[in-house]
Amino acid sequence: MIKILSKILKKILPENYYRRVKIIYDYLINFKSRNYILANDLKYNEELFRKLRFDIEVIKAEISKLNYLYNDQNLSWHYHLFVGLQKYFSHKKIKILEIGTLTGQFTNFISKVYKDSEVTTIDLDDADKTFTSTYGRDQKENLTKFLDQRKNNLDNKNIKFIKLNSINIKKFFSGKKFDLIWIDGDHLNPQITIDIINSLDLLDTNGIICVDDIIMDLQYKKNKYVSNEGFLTLNHLENNDVIKNYYLIKRINRRNFYDKKYISISVFSDNKNFYEF
Which of 38, 126, 149, 166 has the most CB atoms in a 10 Å sphere around its CB? Predict the structure, then answer.
């Protein structure tokens, strides 16, 4: 809602007025969180990386090489995570599945980090009502811009893009296994639970599943895009000894004071390779 309002104001207000409104908004939204200690969130993420035996200096260098900033408060840490996971896979050629392509920005990033690997990314067909009714894609201008951006981002030889509703992935990829699966589609039930369960069936024995926008707050009231339902599913699977979960804070910024999101990292509970690598 805030993003939509911001776009409207940007269109109707003179540029200097829009900037003033944005400054006032940023001040108000950060007023209560001004004493929030960002260093604690950074420490949490880096301690998790050390626990997983990631080389933080290597991650910093790789992120920088691909024109991103390690300490960018707006950059989601799944970028950092996927660089770090190279070590677990011993920098070998692997099969990667991404559920939810969006603009393909992260797909492009993965294809460069894992340049010798096969990256398969799926998203709804452009004509699907759910596709056109979200992220402002019901406006022709926005849709055209979105599709052009996605096309450019997916223009890499190791990326395979498939228009597919993820509810059908188990049947579509029958007999195929993936080493790394990134789930960033619908974050609401029943779809998020279906995506997690189906992905586990498609996951190699020593593979890893990561899920975006995990809300661990049990009192969180879901909206059109996010909920705590993915966390509840992952937690239930862990309680029943199916998987082992780790949680990375999504972004290191002051908005965590109000609404903290995580990225989950999950392996089969009997995957000793992940614990020992």
Answer: 166
Q: How many whole angstroms separate alpha carbon 270 and alpha carbon 109?
A: 30
Fill in the DSSP letter of residue 95: E
Based on its alpha-carbon atoms, the radius of gyration of the chain, rounded to whole angstroms, reads 19
pLDDT at 4: 66
More confident residue, 97 or 132: 97
DSSP letter at 5 equals: H
Which residue has tokens 């849709």? 143
Give residue-wise pLDDT tens across range 8-63. Answer: 767 777 777 677 777 777 767 667 778 899 999 999 999 999 999 999 999 999 99
Cβ atoms of 125 and 221 closer than 8 Å: no
Tell me if the pTM is above 0.85: yes
Structure tokens at 61: 């260098």
CA atoms of 30 and 28, how far apart (whole Å): 5
**Tens digit of each residue's pLDDT (9 = 90 or more) over 222-260:** 988 899 999 999 999 999 999 999 999 999 998 898 889
Residue whose pair of structure tokens reads 């089969």 in the numeric block: 268
How far apart are the C-alpha atoms of 81 and 212, rounded to whole Å? 11
* d(C-alpha 107, C-alpha 100), whole Å: 10
The Cα-based distances of 36 to 39, 89, 258 in angstroms read: 9, 36, 10
Q: What is the DSSP letter of 255?
A: G
Strand order in the sheet with 95-99: 159-163, 118-123, 95-99, 178-183, 203-214, 262-268, 243-249
